[in-house]
Amino acid sequence: MKQRLGILLSGRGSNFEAIAGNALSGKLDCEIGFVFSNRASAPGLARARELGFPCGTLESKGMDRDNYDRRVVDLLREHAVDFVCLAGYMRLLSGHFVHQFRNRILNIHPSLLPAFPGLDAQYQAWTHGVKIAGCTVHFVDEDLDSGPILMQAAVPVLDEDTPEALSARILVEEHRIYSEAIAWVLTGNYRIEGRRVVKT
C-alpha cells in the first residue's frame, strides 16, 4: 500500500503541483491523500480540487494556534496521512502538531538554511549581497526553519539579479529537490543523528 502525503499550502501551490505531478506520473511512489489550506481562496487549493484530490480548509479566526492545529491534525488523521509536506503554508505549527507527526513533516525553504530563515528569504539573501543562495528541504520541528536538513540546492546570485529573478531561479530548484527529498524519505533509508540526516 502506497504511503499517503498530506499537503498544506496557503497560496499558489507551485511546489504542491510539482509534487502532485510526480506522484501522478509514478515518479514518486506515494499518493496525495489530502490537501489542506488555511485560506479558502488559495489558488493551490483550487488546483488540487481540479486534480481530484480530497481537500479541506478551515478558518482560523477566533481560534488559538493549538486548537486550530488540533483540528488540522484530526483532518489529516481522517485521511490516513503518513507524511505531511508544507508547500508555502504560512502558519507556524504548534508543538502538538509537530509531536503528532514527529519526523514526518517536511518543508521547503528558499534559502540555504540556517541562513535567512523566516519570510522573504530570497530578498534577505539579495540585500545581504551573498554570492550563493538556494533552497533547503528540512524536517519540521517546534522552531522556525530549524529542523534537520535533508537536501539543499545552491543557486548563484548574479550581479544583474533582482529579488524576483533570483526567486524564480530558486523556485526551479525547489520543485526539483522537494520531490527528490520526499522520495528519499519514503524509502526509509535514513536516520537522524541530532541535527544531521544520514543515508543508510
Task: List its traits.
200 residues, alpha/beta, Rossmann fold, 2 domains, 7-stranded mixed β-sheet, 9 strands, 36% helix, globular
What does the model show?
The chain is α/β, with parallel strands linked by helices and 200 residues long. It folds into 2 domains: 102 residues, Rossmann fold, CATH 3.40.50; 94 residues, Rossmann fold, CATH 3.40.50. 36% of the residues lie in helices and 26% in strands. The chain contains 6 helices and 9 strands, in the order βαβαβαβαβαββαββ. Strands 3-2-1-4-5-6-7 form a 7-stranded mixed sheet, with helices on both faces. The mean pLDDT is 97.
Q: Give helix % range.
A: 25-40%
Reading the helices and strands in chain order gives EHEHEHEHEHEEHEE
List segments where confidence is low: pLDDT < 50 over at least 5 consecutive residues. none
| Strand residues, percent | 25-35%
CATH homologous superfamily heading of the largest domain: Formyl transferase, N-terminal domain
Overall number of structural domains: 2
- CATH architecture label name of the largest domain: 3-Layer(aba) Sandwich
Indicate the CATH topology of the largest domain: Rossmann fold
Radius of gyration, whole Å: 16 Å
* Distance from first to last alpha carbon: 23 Å
Please count the beta strands (DSSP E, at least 2 residues each). Answer: 9
Q: Based on helices, strands and strand pairing, what is the structural class? A: alpha/beta
Main sheet? 7 strands, mixed
Overall spatial form? globular
- CATH class of the largest domain, named Alpha Beta
Arithmetic mean of pLDDT: 97
| Major beta sheet, strand line-up | 3-2-1-4-5-6-7
